[in-house]
Amino acid sequence: MKLFKYFCLLSFMASCSSEQTPQELLSVDLRSGMDHPSMLALQDEIESVEYIPLETTADPASLLDGVSEYAVTSNYIYVSPVKEQRIVQFDRKGQFVKTLIPFGQGPGEFSDFLMGMQADEKNNRLYLFYSNKIMVYTLDGEFIQSLNHDYTIVYQRMVGQDRFASVAFPYVPFESGSYGLGVFSDKADTIAMKNDFSSPLVSHEKAGFTIALATAYSDMEESVLFKTGSNDTVFRVTADDILPACVLRTGNSDKEVIRSLDATDFSSLKRKFGEDYDIFVSDMFETPSNYYFRCRYNAGYYVASVHKKTGQVLAEKCAQPGDIRALGDANLLYGMLGTKSYQDFPVWGRTQGDCLVQLLTAYELHLYKEKCNITVPPELKEVNDDSNPVFIVYKLRRV
Known about the structure:
It is a single chain. The protein has 4 helices and 26 strands. It has helices at 30-34, 254-261, 324-328, 362-371, and strands at 18-20, 26-28, 46-53, 69-72, 76-80, 87-91, 96-101, 116-120, 125-129, 133-137, 143-148, 153-160, 163-168, 181-185, 190-194, 213-218, 223-228, 233-237, 242-248, 280-286, 290-297, 300-307, 313-317, 350-352, 355-360, 390-396. A 6-stranded mixed beta sheet has the order 1-2-19-18-17-16, with no helix packed on it. It is globular. 46% of the residues are buried.
């Protein structure tokens, strides 16, 4: 299941024409932007930056072998290590607090593979998402309840009071019981559902999700953004509905469409992606002004921005310390494969509140310092090979 954390990456830049459908849905020619890479304009959206190295202490519980999931509030940082499953709490200065939630069979402990984590600071809740349940705690680690459900998810986030947006587990054809995208209540009641991802290239009996998915929680819109490689539409999943957010005209090959929709073909688990010509969107986030997409294209990684009002597309080729397959093995989950438009340092992350949060591991930084000509901020000069991860928090400007 960890394969779903390692979606390959791509991106792009350049001005492009945009089209508005009769419904005023933003539609852009993403491929034209990708073919004329330059630099994004993220620097215009960042007001300030804060560097938060997670400390190591004499307590072995403070040592992290990496981070598989995280959540950030105004007071704390919560992380789940890669190998030793548990939830570790640090304060917002990076000082180690404690192991907040242990892995085990005891009361309030968890024993399943973690699929996601979300902090709701307003309501004092920390959500741990698993393939078939949600465990709910206070932000101080007090166990509240376990919400069990019949559907099986690969991604889930709270998008409103007692409402959860979910993406179904891949490799289950829709006709065999998989729902695609769904909005469910805390009692597992269905609020909205979408499983009409289809193509004449794949029969209905085979159609479903593969790992060609991109999902991201948008804190500013309290919704989930979703894209599958079989469809150029980016969908927004809210507390009440599933609607198109924008359309990226990729012009991908039939092979890529089939790869992302044939749930009976497991070859993509072996990284047998489509042609180099294909654009695979693997991650995204949004700011008040732009959508940002991270992609794989032409045997490299790119990032692209789409302006929400003008439809302008900017695309940029990422600094890359190895070929695409080597990087796939390098565990570059969150940061570094991003835009260098802010202080000439690769930026990528997740929006949380009015901030863009980037996670940087010591290994990633070492890899880039050794093999890429990047500018390392002074605050990161002291990060050595055995350091804990560093969080970089960029405060975004309001529109």
